[in-house]
């Protein structure tokens, strides 16, 4: 099994779709020219291809296990982690003040995409650290920053996120973990957390848990939640790991996939923690972390889609079948249809993720509220469409393999099992869609309409070279605009029933915009043919989706009892 | 985990959608009144709920294994098989001359649906026997029938199908297994077969393999294939299992799911076999078996969809979440959307399967070519849409469970892993779609158009009670008609690239017809609301699908190298 990093598509998207040049023109990112970025991505690509991709199957065949209270990780993961850390890929966007490279999110996003395509179970580890670094940079005291950030950035230590409890999943406000103030300004954390990805490992000097908990006087719900950093080993006065903290891994979940990533049930038993941000303001800090994590999880889907696509294509090129034109199953129209859908959707999802990364970078570099609003709109779409695409492409990858796809040794099924969780964690895709039609339309649709205006401008420009495709994109954008207006006229409860199809229709239009733009830039070849495929075949899905979004009849709870 | 057989939906569909009364009016099935059928299904339901459903998890947690060349099956499967056999559920449609009940395929189809929903891994066993019985009834000599059929029908012996070889999957004509004539009129079979479902077990007195092989003088390709029955134990002169035959299970596949069903690599080493049908006419016999098996596999998808739906609904009713109206996650609009899609699609897929069963029964009972042509059109649709629905519903079932869905102990992931193979085996769904736009349109579309005419007649009638829904169904049918005409004007190669979306659009329209008809019969309640949901939300997908079917641009093989 081999993996080749999609450097060509990254360049295409950065140049022709998301307008990366604007990022490089800001003062903040003036050193990150496109050439520099491409060189950096080339380095990361090498590491992903040579070090991480060979570990992919190990995560499945030699799963992480809990032995005497300690997590033992899959064969080779320790060395893979070391390569990630040494390359600086844990947090390439982190602040140089703490050892980061200060590169745009665009770079981190491409690197996460490649690492996910190469070995998702291992990539989830640095993704957790990235979220923690982000949260600490924004909300921690200088003292905490100084202790934790440098070691997290280099990968000497690893970070986790602890939100979920058995009775508090999507409804995070229901959590009950307690934080009691101690005399020295720290807190004693007590409670059980579940679904803690990479809650422990056997290759970093410390594991630092960001834990949501309640102070003794906290009000119920999300307004009474605070955030704490709770290390496995308490840093001593020199900042080195000291005394073992009162926390432990109770068990690992037996999951459908991602067996290389230990998903821990964690028990905090009066563990020493330090508050991050203000008391009762934990949700705000959590959202800092979660917003970027949503982009991160979205590109997990994109990365796996790429890996699964390449894996299926290699099989289709290899599997002899006399009756077809090419002598292989690639000669069959339906096999090409599947592969074209996989490739076209992966490209679309990647372009959406990078558009979000650019919006985040521009928002940060310029402080412009419009960029921040743009990022707000794109976040749930990048997360949900990226992960849905990962799941769909991986399933098509199994199908391309025929019976071989169902046999585990082939590796196709692993992509499908591994990626299946991504539409669930970091806010289910249903929650992403509710965020889009809810909070993200609270501006009366301003950010959405400005995005649709831009797409129509591109479509107008595209009419010069490929009028039929450009017209289809323009029409679809208009349908999406009308659907948005329709949703805006409704109350929230009524919007929510159509939220998921609306989000998907939005992604279809964004994907069409991306395909049209690269096709206009690279006319007459495979890129144009793929764009034509997407726009004539996949974009039309948007009309049914918009109809679904606008249909208001939803069976009532009682109907399911019938 | 509990499973309740969907007896209400069976009755609804038999009465209001597929016109079962016509079957009961034929001489052949005059004893199978609707009341009798309902009573029979009630008995099967009890067995599925009480005996099979409790075995579902065992198939996953205690997989079939090969020990010293012998397959050891999952805990409880032997007893489960005994209950299936004793109830007469292995082959309720088999000829009474050989001990069958002679019931319509409608009954077998409903029973297969229920057994699949209760425990797919075990149900696959009698499904294999059903195919073998069908093939022997139609093609075997009287002598072979007398030896094999009674024991297969009672379940004393079990049957398998042996088509695939490592180099010959969908391209069955590439197979190389040899059959050399022996002096006693039997043949020596030599070769390796793969993906043999239930190739062995530890609970039947014999395992009888139907094996495709080549006679010494056979021409290459499918025209040189003959069919043989090759028993594990060679029947002695009294018809009882005698000498061990020269065949063996080499290994079991390590699959994504269906762990309770041993998928064998079989080696035939000069094993004694008897020819079934004429020399070099094996493909015709195989198709007898495969056509019914396609319906059988289609309802495997439907059955698993039902099981996964019930399992997810139970969770949604149980999972407390304070913020919702009902106090559970069922109060969330998006959870109800998912469950409504699951329920509405399961109903649609079931109605299509039963329409096919009725067409098969009517074709057999009346000999009418129009019914046979109807069955021909519905076969690929029932197979592909049934299994796609199973896969989609099971994946949504995981999603409804949130994080719990990814944890194996919950059982949601098992449905998804188990059912994933159904879109691959018994002819991949791509092959089904090629059959639909290829062979099944060779009559110039006559059978398809007659079906569409009927749907439009129903829609006209439906306008009395629910004009908006009926109009939507009528319009969608017209779009499908135009798409069909469009495909007919093209050559085959050009049709194949749009075959899968065309098949799905067809299923969407058939499903809408079924929902409209039950809604007209049961107005004003949950049934009507579900029909409204399907027709306003899921039916609109057909327009994008028809657009896909009509788009002719498909990337060329070279484009994927780019």
From TrEMBL, chains A, B:
One of its GO terms (molecular function) is oxidoreductase activity, acting on the CH-CH group of donors. It catalyses: 3-(methylsulfanyl)propanoyl-CoA + oxidized [electron-transfer flavoprotein] + H(+) = 3-(methylsulfanyl)acryloyl-CoA + reduced [electron-transfer flavoprotein]. Its cofactor is FAD. Residues 451-555 form the Acetyl-CoA dehydrogenase-like C-terminal domain. Residues 280-436 form the Acyl-CoA dehydrogenase/oxidase C-terminal domain. Keywords: FAD, Flavoprotein, Oxidoreductase. InterPro entries: Acyl-CoA_dh-like_C_dom, Acyl-CoA_Oxase/DH_mid-dom, Acyl-CoA_Oxase/DH_mid-dom_sf, AcylCo_DH-like_C, AcylCo_DH/oxidase_C, AcylCoA_DH/ox_N, AcylCoA_DH/ox_N_sf, AcylCoA_DH/oxidase_NM_dom_sf. Residues 42-156 form the Acyl-CoA dehydrogenase/oxidase N-terminal domain. Pfam families: Acyl-CoA_dh_1, Acyl-CoA_dh_C, Acyl-CoA_dh_M, Acyl-CoA_dh_N. It is an enzyme of class 1 (oxidoreductase). Its EC number is 1.3.99.41. Residues 161-269 form the Acyl-CoA oxidase/dehydrogenase middle domain. Transmembrane segments: none annotated. Belongs to the acyl-CoA dehydrogenase family. Involved in the assimilation of dimethylsulphoniopropionate (DMSP), an important compound in the fixation of carbon in marine phytoplankton, by mediating the conversion of 3-(methylthio)propanoyl-CoA (MMPA-CoA) to 3-(methylthio)acryloyl-CoA (MTA-CoA). This is 3-methylmercaptopropionyl-CoA dehydrogenase. The lineage of its organism: Bacteria, Pseudomonadati, Pseudomonadota, Alphaproteobacteria, Rhodobacterales.
């Amino acid at each position: 099994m081999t993996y080749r990093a999609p450097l060509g598509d990254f360049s295409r998207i950065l140049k022709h779709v998301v307008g990366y040049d604007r990022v490089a023109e800001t003062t903040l990112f003036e050193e990150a020219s496109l050439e520099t970025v491409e060189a950096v991505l080339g380095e990361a690509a090498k590491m992903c291809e040579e070090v991480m991709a060979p570990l992919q199957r190990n995560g499945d065949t030699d799963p992480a296990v809990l032995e005497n209270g300690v997590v033992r990780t899959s064969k080779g993961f320790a060395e893979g982690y070391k390569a990630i850390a040494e390359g600086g890929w844990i947090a390439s966007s982190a602040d140089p003040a703490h050892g980061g490279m200060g590169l745009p999110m665009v770079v981190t996003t491409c690197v996460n995409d490649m690492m996910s395509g190469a070995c998702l179970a291992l990539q989830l580890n640095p993704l957790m650290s990235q979220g923690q670094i982000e949260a600490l940079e924004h909300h921690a005291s200088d003292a905490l920053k100084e202790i934790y950030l440098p070691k997290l950035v280099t990968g000497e230590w690893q970070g986790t996120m602890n939100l979920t409890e058995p009775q508090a999943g999507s409804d995070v406000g229901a959590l009950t973990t307690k934080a009691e103030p101690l005399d020295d300004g720290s807190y004693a954390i007590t409670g059980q957390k579940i679904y803690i990805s990479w809650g422990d490992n056997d290759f970093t000097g410390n594991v630092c848990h960001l834990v949501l908990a309640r102070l003794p006087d906290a009000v119920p719900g999300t307004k009474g939640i605070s955030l704490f950093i709770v290390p496995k080993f308490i840093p001593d006065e020199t900042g080195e790991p000291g005394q073992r903290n009162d926390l432990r891994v109770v068990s690992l979940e037996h999951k459908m996939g991602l067996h290389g990533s230990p998903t821990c049930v964690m028990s905090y038993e009066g563990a020493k923690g330090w508050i991050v941000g203000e008391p009762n303001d934990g949700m705000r800090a959590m959202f800092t972390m979660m917003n970027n994590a949503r982009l991160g999880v979205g590109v997990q889907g994109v990365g796996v889609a790429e890996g699964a696509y390449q894996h299926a294509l290699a099989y289709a090129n290899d599997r002899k079948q006399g009756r077809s034109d090419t002598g292989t199953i690639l000669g069959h129209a339906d096999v090409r249809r599947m592969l074209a859908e996989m490739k076209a959707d992966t490209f679309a999802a990647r372009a959406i993720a990078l558009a979000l990364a650019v919006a985040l970078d521009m928002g940060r570099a310029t402080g412009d509220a419009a960029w921040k609003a743009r990022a707000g709109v794109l976040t749930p779409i990048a997360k949900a469409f990226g992960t849905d695409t990962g799941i769909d492409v991986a399933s098509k990858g199994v199908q391309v393999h025929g019976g071989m796809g169902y046999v585990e040794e082939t590796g196709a099924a692993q992509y499908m099992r591994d990626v299946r969780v991504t539409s669930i964690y970091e806010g289910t895709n249903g929650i992403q869609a509710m965020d889009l039609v809810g909070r993200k339309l609270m501006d009366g649709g301003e950010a959405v309409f400005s995005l649709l205006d831009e797409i129509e401008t591109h479509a107008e420009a595209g009419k010069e070279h490929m009028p039929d495709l450009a017209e289809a994109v323009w029409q679809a954008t208009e349908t999406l605009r009308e659907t948005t207006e329709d949703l805006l006229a409704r109350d929230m409860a009524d919007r929510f029933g159509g939220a998921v199809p609306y989000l998907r229709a939005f992604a279809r239009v964004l994907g069409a915009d991306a395909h049209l733009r690269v096709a206009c830039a690279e006319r007459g070849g495979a890129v144009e043919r793929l764009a034509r495929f997407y726009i004539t075949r996949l974009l039309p899905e948007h009309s049914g989706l918009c109809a679904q979004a606008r249909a208001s009849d939803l069976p009532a709870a009682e109907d399911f009892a019938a």
